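Team,

Forwarding the record for the chain on the shared tracking sheet. I've put the sequence and predicted structure together so nobody has to dig through attachments.
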Amino acid sequence: MKFLQRSYLAHDKDSLDPKGQALNKVYWLYCLFGIVCIFLSRSTFLLLMIENFPFYLSLIVAIVLLIMLANKIKVAYPVLLVLAGLVISFVPGIPTMHIDPDLIFLIFLPPLLYEAAWAISWKELWHWRRIIGSFAFVVVFLTALSVAFVANHFIPGFSLALGFLLGGIVSPPDAVSAGAILKFVKVPKRMRSVLEGESLLNDASSLIIFRFAMIAVATGQFIWYKAAFSFGWMLVGGVGIGLLIGWIFMKAHQYLPTDANTDIVLSIVTPYIMYITAEEVHSSGVLAVVSGGLFLSTKRHLFLSSTSRLRGGNVWESLCFVLNGLVFLLIGLDLPEISAGLEGVSIPSAIGYGVLITMVLIVGRILSAYGAVIVTLIARNFITVADARNPGYKVPLILGWTGMRGVVSLAAALSIPVKLANGAAFPQRNLILFITFIVILLTLLLQGLSLPYLIRKIHMPDLGDSLPEEEADSLIRVQLAEHALQYVRSHYSEQLNTQPVLQQMARKWEDSILSTDDVLLAEELKKTYGDILNQQRQWLLKKNKEEKMLDEEIVRKHLLRLDLEEEKLRFL
């Protein structure tokens, strides 16, 4: 959950419960241990744990060191991790990595999607819904269609169904890669919002294409009306199940006697239950996790205490940190097994096919970005659009170049079964895996390394999507203090005249500085101050909803400060 930034927690370490932090670390270690256990294999778990456990621990250490190096040299960490995995895979004596295809989606996707849903702004998602929807659904479908025809025409043995299968695998861009790159450069707020929103939905659309293509390959036929009904159920059922389970868990948090640690455990369980439930009834598990995560994210201040929000953020940040690192490292480590399975296709030919598909993806996304701008400029004459201004050639160029592939593509490719239901080998499975690997590697290296330079070179203008950060931060600080003063004067006028500490707080609010350091508060005053903090929180949420030009990241920063202030009350 990105709304809980370490930088703020670092300034308030003394305000957090040391025992609670220790428990958080224990829970985090349990989660990590469980993920590694499932990841290894169900049938050979004990043997692999005994033989290769030090190796898997060393991978975790390598991930941490490589990400620190990436931050130091300002390179997106997915690039370094993929290259490191590739180098490690050629070291003699390294254990062969084999991932159970049945578990790859279940292990990685639910928590990563859930965390992304909590981090995104619903306000921004809704504001840019048309452009996000076009990239997440229309562009993904057109990309898969383009890949299908190119693969069918140029790659021997590839039917249209196999081409669609490959297209569904490689069509969704990876949000983790783009986010890791964009943190080193400044881009317009609108672009970040579109990329974040697209990343939530394009996984669902690509996996729906992937599922239908799998059925077509396995059965050799495609019945359109059955597919249409199935598609509708996947959308409606996935969203409905996610919202229903999200509502149930929200009520569980509200009415059960939970504390911060049990809230965290429930939050880890939630995305898995959403995903598994939806998949069991043949709807979209991805949409279930996304819709449920968005619902709970918008309600977080209704059912989670400030303690749960603060501590939960640490656990989720660490969990997704390791999951993302493992996936990108595995992309490189899995190359020997993928290349060894190529039969009847030479390595140079397979690389050539991968380069061809990569070019189709890059060119197709850039054309789609410019096409989306043209459609928006035409549509503004008939309907109200999110932004009627002409963005020029720079914004769509950058948007089109942020098409790195990663986690979802790897997971989808690895989930292809080795054999069909009739016992026959799945056609072109290893070639599809190899092409997917080449696409991921090339897009990460070519686009990932050049994107920061391209952004700096073309100097994208600030189109006024939101107030400047310094201005918005100062404005919110002043208005928040004014609101607190107004509330305490109208609701606690008597205490304001009799309580010196409350008077001192009022004076600090008058200076737009809020602090409770080194102050011992009486229980009654602590309750009063807690009520004031809650009123400030409600005011912030209301202002964020009403002010369209206000950057939600600024609001979340002030919400975090209020959570930290509320946390301090427990130890005063």
